[in-house]
Amino acid sequence: MAVVPGSLDRVLTDYHLHLRPDDTGEAGEYFTEENVDHYLAAAEEHGIDELGVSEHVYRFTESLEIWRHPYWEGQAIDDIDAYCEFVRSTSLRLGIECDFVPGSEERIANLLQRDFDYVVGSTHFLGEQGAVDDRRFDVWENIGDPDALWSTYFRWQAELARSGLFDIVSHPDLVKIWGRDRPGPQRDLRFHYEPLVEAISESGIAVEISTAGLRKPVEEIYPSRAFAEMCVEAGADFALSSDAHAPDQVGYGYDRALELLSSLGVERICVFERRERRLEPVGRGGADAGQVSSSEEAGA
Ligand SMILES: [Zn+2]
Ligand SMILES: [Zn+2]
Q: Residue 253 Cα, ligand 1 centroid: separation in angstroms?
């Protein structure tokens, strides 16, 4: 993917978002101009210039060519081309959140042969062993040892990064989602991060800074500061998102994310268009340009 020089204007992005809650919601009810307007209004309120939607791949019937997990079979109802057409009729960027399923690379590539602006790559399930973020299919029931689980998860993420199928590796350390509800690894976390950071460095995939973790039991941004530091050292670029599933989650916790980026010395973030990426100075434009604002309490 090409990285081209950008402009001097500061930007905020929110690329990884969903127009409806997980599990429920008819496309006809949520893929509407009215609903998009709510998201656009929230973005404006938070000073977010670049807004895109990335629906879960498994909500489309076409995903069953990639994997046939019972959860996917229950969820795969909508038509992916109707989704693309709808998003292109709005001012939103067109993305998709696509799970990585090892062994299905070719079928994933086929499905992604559409005119997306970006593809967010995710590891939610470790195959038949279960999901890291869904208690209904809890992977901890099959891999009870935290070090074994963390090392398996980060090896999957590394493979995702190396596959070349995705523009962004999303919620990079999602395995920590349950926080203190699950035992932590004995080994230094950086030992577990290493394979993924190496794959990020080799592949050049963008690393998502996701404020979604702040809304989860772990109450932390994805990824951890230590992980982000390793990425900076490895020369990685970052993409900023909230993983919102409702308008009031757009730009959620962005002051914390901006503080993190600033403290890491990261001054530019990725902006995507038709799967080309460029780097733009990160921050709120307009009156407080150049500041990492801490006045978000004025918002929702
Ligand atoms: Zn996700
Ligand atoms: Zn998501």
A: 17
